[in-house]
Specification:
The complex is a heterotrimer. By secondary structure, chain A is mostly helical. Chain A is built from 13 helices and 2 strands. Chain A starts with 11 loop residues before the first helix and ends with a helix. Chain B starts with a helix and ends with a helix. The chains are: A mainly alpha, B mainly alpha, C mainly alpha. Chains in contact: A-B, A-C, B-C.
């Protein structure tokens, strides 16, 4: 943390005047929905009725016993713990690949981050097309490789749905990791590495003991951002499987969507929202503290 | 560091492989947008459109669907500009005076954690009261609010990196706080500013859930328009592909232009020297 | 047009009609006349995005504006979002929508939620009751009312139609080989599911998959509707009306699941993912000899309207002139989806909105709308099926219209309860599990358990009432 030595130079008016506009906008949009959601979660509003009497914690109790909810948490976690390390490692490897002088680097980097800037809903639909058995190239490539017609039903077969979704997810977000890590790595003072290598440490050893600790904060921040996004995972899954087969790939966001916008279980969905927000806040607070300390 | 030609060749090979993997889906999308219906529905699929034709794009212009890209452009640009302005101001105050302390910083970032899907309906109710449903203003305010935590968080990091001595000497020379901010701090953090702005813009450009619920027809943005092409009794793959391509071009240009800031800028905020 | 006969009945009919000054007018003309006082206003109408919306955008909207001076603003919404959007705007009381397109199976939900305006007073005021009677009975009697109240005008004769390649099924060589193999004459077309299975598998085997015997919707949202049809044709009932226990896991249900699995083996690989477009493309390209879908397939297979720009997404038909039309096996095709026109209860311009939908739905205007080559509205009035103009649209059009009319007599309804979508969702998930290889009985037991839980949640008594209202409709179950 920087020392707050600027304090002496400034009046309170300036200090808070700089903050208020942003806070007001955040509050305008953020406050009402949260308060509203919290209140509604104790009422009994569904598709047909606006029973606004206080119901206590019935929705919360029901949620605790809702197997579909816990499964959706589990599925979300699976995506999280598989996709995040994959994206991190692939992103890191890519970043290392680009670290040294490489003519044409700028163009390559610009091209590589294209998946990140594609709208997730469009990325998901594109992958659905790629996976299509009849019109998509993936099974075609497979059949060239295996020498026989390949009919892999990526979005139907329980064995392949997770790999399919993960592939699309990793495709879209690895470049994000790559960009952040490349940035972090470019900032590492090369003389440190050279000194280590002069001392006889090999590339990987140098990387592990010298470079990695330095870029740890970047890694943590990148992981935090991605973990938050993965926790909300929606578009890619929706486009590929709609949570199926059955509810096998249903994430928390998809379940929340179904409850709130298909079933209009307004109060129940609100309870779920509150639980998610509280859980996320706790986890993220803890994570953030670690990041802050690591800085 | 020096590298042998063989190493360089190997690296190019790996880069080429990565490019193929990350660009192929996008190539496929663009290829579809140039195909005729018979090519789109060919099985096994055709990899290269037989004759390049822009019919699929022409339809979008003729029917006025491209206006949704204009909506996206207005909404994303203005919300990015406002979020960057307000966010950087706020971040400066937080970085330099520790305004609000750690708790305030935590509160700010916690606003970014809320999954849109769980608050979009209350936002809709709020917007009905404000008369902001289906207006670009509504989306601009919303995206500004949603991006502010990210901007504040990132910019705070960049500003903390600026040596405070620079500012102090300017202040001693008689500059006001605002002048110091404008003339000393902003130029130094330019890279970070651009990098953050790009990601802010990308978010606003691609956002779907809010736009779906909060627009009807006037303020429809391009990701929502694309979903119009998925019907119960029709699937306009040609239009989906053409519209998606059109919608990705502006953002690609922005990224390509600001690419060097992206790499440098991202690094400044995240890494403490 | 049998405009004159309708007028005759209209004149002799109701007192209300007689009291109207504009006596010698059709319902469409009456609507236009009454609507002129709202000239200069604007009404919004929710319409399915895409092809459907080309009707109000290119045809009916501009025409209405010209006749009445009322602007029509079309809000395009993808089907999957329509219910959500309508209910959401109603919840917030925005009044943003004046007129609506609703899928009939939603009407119970939307009416109960208070989102729809009861139309009876308007129908009487503007003398539309007689013309409503000339809507084909199956739509009129099933897709117009909730309880005894009119909430929507059936406006789209959606029904599953069985399409088959006359050149393949009629091929003497195939017929001879079939008879030899199966011991009976190849039925053209198959009339029950066993025959369908025999023919489908035989053709696939005999031709080595060129073409495949059949391809069907298997993507769960579509397959779910096909299951509903076949389940009832096989004698299944959705609920025990006494206890409201779900009986979807009965022998009939399991049998249909098993048949569907078996049939897949003779269909093109990957058929499990087929929705509207995949199935269409395969049939139009001549890769499948039989299929089941909505009426537009028939028009497009014949090449009708395919020169239109709006069809740039449809592959060219290779099979024009080679398509036969029939009832689906079992003879009771699902009246799948469809649309009714309704008025939003929150509208600030209900009269104008109502007049617009009366005009759209009327004999005079609807006959043009169902023939728009690019639109997806299908014939739904008796006069549409017999229209000489329509019959002349392509060589096989008379048979096509006959098949639609037959379907409109014996067709069966989508299940419509309170919170219908939750029941359908359970079915959709069940079907996706079926393709994933789970046991049919186990899946359906699960579906039944989920249905029971939903019923419990909605309220058993309320749901029983809704179910009885639905099941008492003439075409809820095959008779």
């Amino acid at each position: 943390m920087q020392p707050a030595s600027g304090q002496a130079f400034v009046g309170r008016g300036f200090k808070y005047g700089m903050v208020w506009p942003a806070v007001l906008v955040i509050l305008l949009i953020g406050l009402f929905p949260i308060v509203y959601t919290a209140i509604v979660s104790f009422q009994n509003i569904d598709m047909f009725g606006e029973d606004t009497s206080f119901q206590g914690g019935v929705h919360y109790a029901r949620l605790m016993g809702d197997a579909r909810f816990w499964q959706s948490v589990l599925h979300t976690m699976i995506f999280l713990v598989v996709a995040l390390p994959l994206e991190l490692v692939l992103g890191l490897l890519l970043a290392l690949l680009f670290l040294d002088r490489l003519p044409g680097k700028q163009i390559f980097v610009a091209l590589l981050i294209l998946p990140v800037v594609t709208s997730p809903i469009i990325a998901g639909s594109t992958w659905r097309l790629l996976f299509d058995n009849r019109y998509g190239p993936i099974n075609q490539i497979l059949s060239w490789l295996t020498g026989e017609p390949a009919t892999v039903l990526w979005t139907v077969n329980p064995v392949y749905v997770y790999p399919a979704i993960l592939l699309a997810e990793v495709w879209q977000w690895t470049p994000f990791m790559f960009l952040l890590l490349l940035a972090g790595l470019s900032n590492v003072d090369q003389s440190l590495n050279e000194a280590a290598e002069l001392d006889g440490a090999g590339f990987w050893k140098t990387f592990w003991y010298v470079t990695l600790p330095i870029i740890k904060p970047v890694i943590l921040i990148a992981c935090l951002i991605r973990a938050l996004d993965l926790f909300r995972l929606f578009d890619v899954v929706w486009a590929l499987t709609r949570g199926g087969p059955g509810t096998m790939t249903e994430t928390v966001s998809i379940y929340a969507y179904v409850l709130a916008f298909k079933q209009f279980e307004t109060s129940y969905a609100a309870a779920l929202a509150v639980v998610i927000i509280v859980l996320l806040s706790l986890v993220v607070m803890a994570a953030l503290r670690r990041v802050e300390f690591a800085r | 560091m020096r590298q042998s030609p063989r190493t360089l060749a190997l690296r190019y090979l790996l880069v080429a492989l990565a490019l193929v993997f990350f660009l192929f889906p996008i190539y496929w999308l663009v290829a579809i947008s140039l195909k005729t219906p018979d090519e789109i529905f060919a099985s096994p699929p055709i990899w290269v459109p037989g004759q390049i034709q822009f019919q699929n794009y022409a339809v979008l212009f003729k029917d006025g669907d491209v206006w949704t890209i204009w909506n996206s452009l207005v909404v994303a640009t203005l919300s990015t500009a406002v979020a960057m302005l307000l966010g950087t101001m706020c971040a400066y105050s937080m970085a330099r005076f520790r305004t609000g302390g750690d708790h305030f910083a935590m509160w700010v970032i916690s606003n970014r954690m809320i999954p849109p899907i769980v608050i979009v309906f209350p936002v809709f109710l709020l917007y009905v009261k404000l008369g902001w449903v289906d207006t670009r203003l509504g989306l601009i305010v919303l995206y500004t609010a949603f991006n502010l935590p990210y901007v504040i968080w990132m910019m705070r990091g960049y500003i903390q990196d600026v040596p405070i001595e620079l500012e102090e000497s300017a202040l001693v020379d008689g500059c006001s706080r605002l002048q110091t901010f404008r003339l000393i701090v902003l130029p130094v953090i330019r890279g970070g500013l651009f990098a953050t702005a790009v990601f802010t813009f990308v978010f606003a450009w691609n956002e779907f859930v809010f736009a779906l619920v909060l627009t009807r027809s006037n303020a429809t943005t391009f990701p929502v328009q694309v979903t119009h092409y998925f019907g119960g009794q029709s699937n306009f793959w040609a239009k989906i592909a053409a519209m998606s391509t059109l919608g990705t071009i502006p953002i690609f240009i922005a990224v390509a232009m600001l690419q060097k800031f992206l790499v440098r800028g991202v690094s400044m905020g995240a890494v403490k020297g | 047009m049998n405009c004159r006969t309708i007028l005759a009945t209209a004149v002799s009919a109701t007192a209300i009609l007689a009291s109207l000054p504009a006596l010698a007018q059709s319902a469409a003309e009456r609507a236009v006349e009454a609507a002129k006082q709202y000239a200069g206003t604007e009404i919004t109408i929710v319409w399915e995005a895409g092809l459907q919306a080309l009707d109000p955008l290119n045809f009916s909207g501009p025409k209405w504006k010209e006749l009445t001076g009322i602007d029509v603003k079309v809000i395009e919404v993808p089907t999957a979002e329509m219910f959500t959007k309508i209910l959401q705007e109603h919840r917030a009381g925005t009044g943003a929508y004046d007129a609506l397109n609703v899928i009939p199976s939603w009407m119970a939900d939307l009416a109960r939620a208070g989102a729809l305006e009861p139309l009876d007073p308007y129908v009487d005021k503007y003398g539309y009751r007689d013309e409503l009677q000339t809507i084909a009975p199956v739509y009129r009697d099933n897709q117009m009312l909730v309880g005894d109240t009119i909430y929507g005008f059936p406006d789209d004769g959606d029904v599953f139609v069985f399409y088959y390649r006359t050149d393949v099924l009629g091929d003497p060589e195939i017929q001879a080989a079939f008879k030899e193999a199966k011991g009976y004459d190849l039925p053209v077309p198959p009339t029950d599911w066993q025959q369908f299975y025999d023919v489908s598998c035989f053709i696939t085997e005999h031709t080595g998959g060129k073409p495949y015997g059949a391809g069907l919707f298997r993507d769960p949202p579509y397959a779910q509707q096909m299951f509903q049809e076949r389940f009832r044709v096989a004698g299944g009932k959705f609920f025990d009306p006494e206890t409201m226990q779900a009986t979807v896991n009965s022998e009939a249900g399991v049998g249909v699941f098993q048949s569907m699995l078996e049939e897949n083996k003779c269909m093109p690989p990957g058929v499990e993912t087929w929705g509207f477009v995949e199935n269409l493309a395969a049939f139009l390209q001549g890769d499948t000899a039989m299929t089941i879908s909505w009426p537009p397939y028939g028009r497009w297979a014949a090449g009708y309207g395919l020169d239109q720009e709006a069809f740039s997404w449809v592959p060219k038909s290779q099979i024009a002139g080679k398509v036969g039309y029939a009832l689906t096996p079992g003879g009771h095709p699902q009246l799948a989806s469809g649309f009714s026109l309704a008025v939003s209860s929150d509208s600030n311009n209900k009269e104008a909105a109502y007049l617009f939908i009366q005009w759209l739905n009327s004999e005079e205007v609807s006959i043009d709308r169902v023939q728009l080559p690019y639109a997806l509205r299908d014939p739904f009035r008796d006069s549409h099926f017999t229209s000489e103009e329509y019959k002349s649209r392509w060589p096989e059009a008379p048979q096509y219209l006959e098949a639609l009319q037959a379907g409109a007599v014996s067709g069966i309804l989508d299940l419509s309860l309170l919170q219908t979508d939750r029941y359908e969702e359970a079915l959709r998930q069940g079907i996706s599990r079926l393709w994933a290889g789970e046991d049919p009985q186990a899946i359906l037991d699960d579906v039944a358990a989920q249905w029971d839980a939903i019923t419990e949640r909605v309220g058993v008594d309320a749901q029983r009432e809704a179910y009885l209202d639905w099941s008492s409709k003439p075409n809820a179950y095959p008779n």
